[in-house]
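Quick sanity check, ATP-binding protein:
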Amino acid sequence: MSARIHLPSGLVTFMFTDIEGSTRLAQMLGSGYRPVLSEHRRLLRATLAESDGTELFTEGDSFFVAFADASAALDACLTAQRALAGHDWPTPESVPRVRMGLHTGHAEPLAGEYASAEVHRAARIAAAAHGGQVLCSGATARHAAPLPDGASLLDLGLHRLRGFDDRERLFQLVAPGLERQFPRPRTAEAVPHNLPTQITSFVGRRTERTALDRLVKAHRLVTVVGAGGAGKTRLAVELASGVVESYPDGVWFVDIAPVTDPGLVAFAVAAVLGLRPEPGRPMVDTLVEYAASRRMLFVLDTCDAQPAASAELIARLLTGGGGVRVLATSRESFGLPGEVVWRIPPLSADPDPAGGPSDAIALLLDRTAAARGGRDAGATETADLQRVVARLDGLPLAIELAAARLRVLSASQLAERLDDVLGALDAGREAAQPAPAAGRRWVANQHDTVDLAAAALGGAPPPAARAVQRSATQRHVTMEATVTWSYRTLGPRASRLLRWLAVFSGPVDLATVEWLLDDDPLDPLSVLVDKSMLQVEPHASGSTYRMLDPIRAYAARRLVEAGEEQTARDRHLAWSLHALRRAYLGPDDRPVTLSLYALDPLADELRAALRWTVTGGSARSGLQLAGGLDQWWRERGLAREGRLWLFRLYGRIAETGERVPEAELAAAYHMHSLHAGADGEFAEEMRFSQRAEAAARRAGDAGLLARVLAGRAGSLVDMDQFAEAERVCREVIDRAEEAGVPGDGLFAIYRLAELLWRRGVLDEAAELLGRARPSEAARPAERGRRSVDMLLGMVALTRGDLVAAHDHLVVALRSRMSHGFHGRACDTLQAIAVRCAWGGDPVLAARLFGAAQATRSALRCSPGIYGPYWSEEQAALRAVLGDEAFDGAYAEGAELRLEEAVTVALAVEHPDLSAGSIRFAGMDPQ
């Protein structure tokens, strides 16, 4: 080296690099090795030229470089690794995997070189690294600030370097573009373990890892329980990898799945420790004696393959010595004293608090990029990927399989196919095919466990054992194989309950399960929970039981195969009708004011029941379900969905010839007309109104006919035929009185009052509404809407009576929100906005208008007869505030959720309490 080259002194960071397996690479490439070596040197020197590193010497495939700055040294390593990874090498086999080590210490150059122990320490750190890995000492980590953008240092714990008596804390450089998963550093006293090296990165589960780590530290036996494909093994291995240093005698992984004979379980565990049988002594005694004086952790995987034998061995190990701990994975617990059962939750679908994607989405994105050759999912796919993970219930195996499907499907195509979860995920896979190449090395280790155990007994595994080996390695190749692994262990009652629960779309409580079976379900229910086929979700009112969607899809297939689908789904339909009726009744079985919130949790189950009525069940029952959801569909912005279900039910009736009474048809047609009007389909609205009238007349039901004709007035209003609508309303009111069903004329009264308000006939409208209040109070399905108060509030607004308007509108808004009438609450919000504008608070008025319109747009609700009025009031408000102030307040209101906007509206000060109120003018404040 030239003496003219300036070498840093004082605090110096030394870097060593070399190619991992260079001898083997040279033998394999022959004459092609020299170009690879030269290109490797060129890339590293190009990186060093851009940093302040000084190259001291190069020997073979090794570099020795000195830096004056630790941060620059780390940046150079990162840049070099990225350059090596991104370079176009002749063949994939010729890619040089370079390991790098850094250490920072005080050193002074002498005669163009360093004679310091710090140099040797850096060399030993480099020797401990793996190809593609950058390791640094604790000293470098302390002085490397700032780190390169996006980079971090992963603490790998304390390690003893060859030739040094103390232990050095090593850190791994982690950054985008660098590999993350590596075996333990190659140090002098590496703690023994046989944990499988993972092929793919571990994603998410920070909260779960923390919780499980705490349990393993506090308890000697922790069993991770969950459904097949829930990620039990991966989480256990990930956790065990992080605690290896805590167990001086090692962390030992044993997969019980390939063990076909209960007597071989102890041999399988002994085999990984290198123990051989002793003459005349049971293997379990030899194993327990060996472990008794040692401090070690056993990770026993898939213990449900041999639950009894696994439980017996675990009990012996734990009682034989206090230094042994067991982390087991299984689909059911052991029931041993001291066992802590930790049920692994699905991957979270909630966004990361730091602003990143949820764990479920992160896993899908990671695996999708791998499946697509490194190409990330596009931003336009985000919503569809959310639909995919939601449908897969956060089950990691299902997400992994879904990512594989995204090689050939777009995210939207896959999301559309997930009604058949098993078909979509398992397409192109057969349970009998070999395990994927990515998992073969681990599979070989599983096979070796059985082979070693059999060899210890003096022979090769029997054919039956080989068959179990094959099925064990393939149990996660398809979702169907995964669930079959558990299903085959169920007894007749438990398997029947699993099949029948597949007809439910969501969680069920104990009473619902009893309804379904018409029998005491506690024993089979307990079995399904214990075997992780059902998830228990505790609530203050009692536990509910939820089946993951992939398991439900499997159970539904089994239901059909068993010939039980018709019976089970008819039973579910009966339950749905019963649950719907209960939503309209109180504890005393008497009608109560309808709350649409009572229907929200039933919606998915009722949809499932509706699906059955249009494919294999009773369409008449489907019309009854649809009728129970009549207002709910419109108030939740789902009028179009309601129309589609009705169309399908009409088709089912035509197909089967099922007889439906005229009154029920009239009610369905009337409901359809209302849905069409809410959806802006006015021609369809009139057409079904006419059909409803004809059916009601054939039924001879005067009350029904009055309701239908009142709806006809709404159709006429939608088509701007206001005079004809008013004539129809007056006729309906008179006929309802004559027929003795005045309550059924209530809807005509509402419509007539709106029409009178529209043309300014306020006294008649107020008188009409006053007479209607008793009828409204007597109708539980309508009184929660408080339409009389809403309309009286509109009349008072038009009169300029802010006190009366405030009183009526607050009552209407509070009732509508309390009972879940969200679409109608938007009307009331806008009316209160007008009241605020006239009461001297234009900014708040604009905010409320913005909030109401945002919710109305989300619900796809038309403004109806009030539309022109709201537009006029907003235009007047804009003129008062100016465009900028109005738009700012309006946009601010649009950011509010409906509940927040209602809270703001209800907090508006009563006019009587405002400054200058005429109510208290002249009164002594004392």
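Posting the structure with no commentary besides this: Residues 421-476, 917-926 have pLDDT under 50 and may be disordered.
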